[in-house]
Write a structure and sequence with these properties.
The chain has about 190 residues and is mainly β. It is built from 1 helix and 8 strands. The chain has an 8-stranded antiparallel β-barrel. The radius of gyration is 23 Å and the shape is elongated.
Length: about 190
């Protein structure tokens, strides 16, 4: 009977070192925590010429609303082993074309790859303001996107940025019922 009483203590003693070690993802990075980030991106957006639930005006036949934009993003990722979830906000300014401002928020989810790479999807809500005068209304609706981020080590430049967490992001987004297409590229700094 005494031997059975010591069995839980022995099991606890053997498990303690495993519990004390921090969890890691398959790539050796932290498996859990909070990873804030900021970034600057640039891209181009095309809107189709079909009616949308957002109410974006239809251009003349054979025309499309389009424009170049610069976008700032800020967000946080929460690693969950080899996966992650997160939230992101964005603000974009049209540089040339029909877009004046855009802003929105999205949830992100995906899989981590290598030391600093990731593949992800995102779903959110976006507001769009077009260059149609001083009192131009905002058009809004759901937004969807997919993307990839790669760090310097994944593209053969591991020694250049050290531990700074700078990543290259490639992303494609759409709004509504695929009423737009917006490819973007930029640099993201993780902390």
């Amino acid at each position: 009977m005494r031997q059975l009483m010591f069995l839980p203590l022995v099991a606890l003693g053997l498990a303690a070192p495993a519990v004390a070690q921090p969890a890691t993802a398959p790539d050796g990075s932290r498996a859990f925590g909070i990873e804030p980030y900021v970034g600057v991106m640039g891209g181009y957006e095309w809107f189709d010429n079909e009616p949308s639930e957002a109410g974006i005006p239809q251009p003349a036949r054979g025309q499309n609303l389009k424009g170049t934009l610069v976008q700032g993003v800020a967000g946080v990722n929460i690693p969950l082993g080899a996966f992650f979830v997160g939230a992101e906000g964005n603000v974009a300014k049209g540089v040339e074309g029909d877009i004046d401002w855009q802003y929105g928020a999205a949830g992100r989810f995906g899989i981590r790859a290598g030391e600093s790479g990731m593949f992800y999807g995102k779903v959110g809500y976006q507001w769009i303001n077009l260059n149609s005068g001083p009192d131009s209304p905002d058009y809004d609706g759901m937004s969807y996107g997919i993307g990839v981020e790669v760090g310097p080590r994944e593209i053969g430049l591991g020694g250049i940025t050290g531990e700074s967490g700078v990543r290259l992001r490639l992303e494609a987004n759409t709004s509504g019922d695929f009423n737009s297409f917006r490819p973007t590229v930029g640099l993201i700094a993780h902390f």
